[in-house]
């Protein structure tokens, strides 16, 4: 596994850091507290900044569960590090797993690219190579780049976002202990954002789905693919089963698990 870290950005046009995990120091030299509150664009190469703005706008418009962007990030000492960023759009934030790359054509990049909704590679001259989009057309994604700016004058998103929640999971535990959850988990599945910390994810998975979810999470720990899974969530307060779909990606600092409601008519 490449050196990597987790970051959370707000949903504004400036994409400000809300959280950065400790391993950012290994990748980019910064301490997490040096980045929180800063715009993510501050760490991008000037020649690539316009292209990254288009990609950020497209991510907000399409609300992809997972996309990959390859670009150069600025290290604290001034040189640039080629990175893959897996972006999970999650209602009012962007949850990202960030990987330092040896080269743009490495095997691990290809593994992530083959399992993402879409893949953008920003070239040194600032052009964008659309490399993925397995479930969308090249023509439609190119059109997205020309669509209306998705933020108002106050940098707030203009359209209503699909409800989603995210949890971070301790990757060093078989029980998949929860270490963080976004606030939307309470309204969507009845899980308290704070009381769930330290509990096993599997306590919230329907019994018939636990084995499949376990296998997917263990696979995410050992490979660099973005795992997709469908399962039923068990509400503790009502015992109701809620159909969800989720994506999972893994870093040194934990697994990122982003979920949204699933149409119950879709087969498991």
Describe, in plain words, how this protein is organized in 3D.
The chain is built from 7 helices and 12 strands. By secondary structure, the chain is α+β, with helices and mostly antiparallel strands. The radius of gyration is 18 Å and the shape is globular. Strand 10 (227-234) and strand 11 (241-251) form a beta hairpin. It folds into 2 domains: 4-144, Beta-Lactamase (2-Layer Sandwich); 164-261, PAS domain (Beta-Lactamase, 2-Layer Sandwich), CATH 3.30.450. Helices cover 22% and strands 31% of the residues. It has helices spanning 24-28, 32-35, 49-62, 107-115, 138-144, 184-189, 210-222; strands spanning 4-10, 17-20, 67-74, 80-90, 93-100, 118-122, 128-130, 164-169, 178-181, 227-234, 241-251, 254-261. The two termini are 30 Å apart.
């Amino acid at each position: 596994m490449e050196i990597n870290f987790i970051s959370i950005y707000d949903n504004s046009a400036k994409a400000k850091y809300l959280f950065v995990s400790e391993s950012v120091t290994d990748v980019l030299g910064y301490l997490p507290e040096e980045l929180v509150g800063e715009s993510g664009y501050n760490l991008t190469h000037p020649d690539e900044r316009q292209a990254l703005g288009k990609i950020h706008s497209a991510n907000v418009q399409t609300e992809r569960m997972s996309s990959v962007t390859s670009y150069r990030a600025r290290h604290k000492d001034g040189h640039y590090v080629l990175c893959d960023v897996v972006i999970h759009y999650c209602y009012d934030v962007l949850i990202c797993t960030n990987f330092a790359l040896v080269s743009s054509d490495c095997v691990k990049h290809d593994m992530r690219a083959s399992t993402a909704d879409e893949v953008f590679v920003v070239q040194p001259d600032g052009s964008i190579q659309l490399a993925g989009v397995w479930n969308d057309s090249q023509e439609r994604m190119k059109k997205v780049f020309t669509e209306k700016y998705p933020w108002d004058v106050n940098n707030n998103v203009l359209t209503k976002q699909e409800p989603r929640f995210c949890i971070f999971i301790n990757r060093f535990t078989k029980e998949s202990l929860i270490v963080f959850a976004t606030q939307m988990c309470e309204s969507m599945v009845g899980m308290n954002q704070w009381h769930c910390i330290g509990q096993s994810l599997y306590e919230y998975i329907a019994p018939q789905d636990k084995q499949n979810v376990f296998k997917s999470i263990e696979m995410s720990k050992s490979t660099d693919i973005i795992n997709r899974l469908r399962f039923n969530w068990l509400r503790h307060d009502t015992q109701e089963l809620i159909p969800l779909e989720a994506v999972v990606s893994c870093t040194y600092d934990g697994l990122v698990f982003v979920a949204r409601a699933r149409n119950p008519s879709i087969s498991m």
